[in-house]
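Response to reviewer comment R2.3. The reviewers asked that we include at least one raw input/output pair. We reproduce the pair for Pimeloyl-ACP methyl ester carboxylesterase here without editing.
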Amino acid sequence: MTLAHDVTGSGPAVLLLHSTVCDRRMWDPQVPALAGAGHRVVRCDMPGYGGTPVPAGRFDEAAAIAGLLDDLGADRVAIVGASGGGRLAIEFASRWPDRVTALALLCTALRGHEPSAELQAFDEREEALLEAGDITGAVDLNVEVWVGPEAEDKTRDHVRVMQRHAFEVQIAAENVPYEPFRVEPDPARITAPTLLVTGSHDLPDFRDIAIHLDGRLPQSRHLHLDWAGHLPSLERPDEINALLLDFLPSAHR
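Raw output as returned:
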């Protein structure tokens, strides 16, 4: 199965991996800025999000990304990953370190992380709402928890649309025997310069993850933003665009 995707611009490739609250449309504010600065911007939807259906059987998301990049002739790529997209970026960079020139991880998740009481409480509330058939309530919960105070109302509505679509696609595929194949990443294998971004208005898990990774990645820098929630690229897109453009040219060869 080929991941739904789009490509904009020309030059060194930059892959954008979305949060599991969103789909590839979350990067709408970043695509013009990155393409305008001379990058070939690739963004894709992971299974069950946006335009990519839930696959039947075993499916290796990281390998699917590798296959997509092969099809596009992108041997090496910088990766920008948000939350769950950051978790996938870490796995990809650990499995194929020679293919990754730079990593920008925005409030990244990490496989194997032990969730805090706050994150466990969120998961339980979301599950209860979905089991009760209250998709609207589950969507509103996600917007409340994951979108920071700097976001405009139109941004909240944008996240609401993406999250609702993901729930609808995934609920419709509840009987599909999807078995994600995942590999435990080894951060020590990652050779790319890495920027770790976290926010003061996010759950504490994601700052803890960044601090943990900053101590294990060979070339990393942790930037904590006092204004940011969990989705800074949507909350203050111009500021994050400037941050990415400053980071990528210095790291992307």
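Residues 153-172 form the longest helix (20 residues). The beta strands are 5-8, 13-17, 40-44, 57-60, 77-82, 100-106, 178-181, 194-199, 220-225. Further pairs are available on request from the corresponding author.
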